[in-house]
Design goal:
single chain, 510 residues, 11-stranded antiparallel sheet, 14 helices, 42% helix, membrane, SCO6880 family protein, transmembrane helix, transmembrane
Length: 510
């Protein structure tokens, strides 16, 4: 969770590494504490009976088990790794992980019925009522009970902006999130930026068609040098935003609007214009809310980047003047069956590796995620998605109050027992006080997660390109490769459907 604070230089986001669900039992969750007590009990019983040899054996066993339970390895304790591996292998052996599209086996289905693998299978895509001349596709997450909508954005980018301009954009982003939090209807916003693979063929064909035979030789030479120097570093991007709200938050306004899917759509529509205005304040020049065909094409090109050319040709040759005939939602998924793998996700002739991006303890500045989108080789694609969840005022106050109380108890306990307080303890205590003061002044607490992925053709060595992404993040962010969950991580990093932020954890969750 984070509360933004300002410094004399560029706006710095601090408190970014607040860990949810920190246990009160010496930082352990109840499950960890009970397991630790259970493995230590035999050693303590043996010591009480003066059976020192047995006590030593049980003590060594308890120490090993404690390390496996408590010490994280790449983000997960060893026991969690073992449990995840068992579930992954069980799914593979029982063939639960295998998926085959209906189109690949020649089965006909309803054009409005989605045919998607993995976590996407829980989504429904009903069309809402007309909104400014078009029908917006609603994204219904049946597992979490959420309703959302996705828009395609046009933005000029932030790479050439000054620090002052980036600070203004950061302030406007914070204001937009705070405003959404006050409405308490839409509480999640997901921003997706993904590059478009380009090998230069389309541009070369265009150049050949528009080449002038009477052009001066010097102009031809200069143009060729510019193409050679610029084409290798230029990149095309597409930008999406997904906003969603919970069923509980939408139920009352939806009932007032007539109930059903249409009522929930109208409850969302009342906020979409405000979201669009906030996005325009961030430099977005156009906001286009997607219909079901637009969402289907965004998902399809996420699985298969090379499908974009065929979809563009389809729109250009549409019998309707507005090009409204598009891809049905039933064909949005991959045509080829994704292959379950532990370290990568293989789909539609491509391979992807997804990461969770962990910001540094010292904070970060607006626009610092740009290097993760720096394409190194023509044909690869990089994606970056940030998922925000704005907590209500009451929930935010509870979070910062609990965090401040926990840090004060830790520092006071160390001082009473004569232990030195570390700089980390002091910084966390000071940051907790600052966060509580900021929330009391009207700021919002925002949960967020950042996911990034790289996609290359299946016949390329995906590990080489994954290493390049890790090199680009080195020194700026820590990338945590999401082993054994690459299919779900790919959805969180590359598809504009609003999936990617886990439910809020509590200290006494199992």
């Amino acid at each position: 969770m984070s509360v933004e604070t300002t410094s004399p230089g560029p706006r710095v986001y601090r408190g970014l590494n607040y860990k949810e669900g920190i246990g009160w039992i010496a930082g352990m969750t109840p499950a960890q504490a009970f397991l630790l007590i259970g493995v230590c009990a035999p050693a303590l019983l043996a010591m009480s009976r003066n059976q020192w040899s047995q006590a030593l054996g049980w003590g060594v066993f308890a120490a090993i088990v404690a390390v496996l339970i408590l010490v994280p390895i790449h983000g997960r304790p060893a026991f969690r790794w073992l449990a995840d591996l068992v579930m992954f292998q069980t799914g593979v052996l029982m063939r639960w992980s295998l998926w085959q599209s209906r189109a690949a086996v020649g089965l006909a289905g309803d054009a409005a019925e989605p045919d998607l693998p993995g976590v996407l299978a829980r989504l429904e895509f009903p069309d809402g009522p007309e909104f400014h001349g078009s029908r917006i596709c609603l994204i219904h997450d049946t597992a979490e009970g959420r309703w959302g909508a996705t828009a395609k954005l046009t933005h000029s980018g932030v790479g050439m902006l000054s620090d002052d301009e980036c600070e203004r954009l950061a302030s406007r982003l914070g204001s937009m999130l705070v405003g959404l939090g006050h409405r308490e209807v839409v509480d999640r916003v997901s921003l997706l930026v993904r590059t478009v693979p380009d090998d230069g063929t389309e541009y070369t064909v265009w150049r050949e068609r528009h080449q002038r035979a009477d052009a001066p030789a010097l102009a031809r030479q200069v143009t060729a040098e510019i193409d050679r120097d610029v084409a290798s570093v230029s990149v095309r991007t597409e930008l999406f935003v997904t906003v969603s709200g919970t069923e509980e938050a939408l139920r009352r306004p939806a009932k007032a609007a007539g109930g059903g899917i249409a009522g929930r759509a109208y409850a969302l529509y009342r906020l979409l214009e405000g979201v669009a205005d906030g996005l325009r304040g961030l430099g977005v020049t156009s906001v286009t809310w997607l219909s079901s065909t637009g969402v289907a094409e965004a998902i399809k090109t996420g699985f298969n980047p090379s499908a974009a050319a065929g979809l563009s040709f389809r729109h250009l040759n549409s019998p309707d003047p507005d090009g409204s005939v598009g891809l049905p939602i039933s064909q949005a998924g991959p045509a080829l069956a994704p292959t379950p793998a532990a370290r990568a996700y293989h789909h539609d002739g491509y391979s992807s590796v997804a990461y969770a991006v962990q910001p540094p303890e010292s904070g970060t500045i607006f626009g610092s995620l740009g290097p993760l989108l720096a394409v190194r080789t023509a044909g690869e694609r990089r994606t970056l998605q940030i998922h925000y969840e704005i907590l209500s005022a009451a929930a935010g106050a509870r979070v910062v109050k609990s965090d401040r109380f926990r840090n004060n108890v830790l520092v006071d306990a160390k001082a009473q027992r004569g232990f030195n307080t570390t700089a980390v303890d002091s910084r966390r205590q000071r940051g907790a006080r600052e966060q509580e003061a900021a929330v009391a002044a009207g700021h919002a607490v925002v949960r967020f997660t950042v996911a990034s992925a790289i996609t290359v053709p299946a016949d390329w060595n995906v590990e080489d390109h994954a290493a390049r992404l890790e090199n680009d993040a080195s020194g700026r962010f820590h990338l945590l490769r999401l082993e054994l969950a690459q299919d779900s991580a790919f959805v969180a990093a590359a598809l504009p459907v609003g999936i990617g932020l886990p439910r809020e954890k509590r200290a006494f969750d199992a």
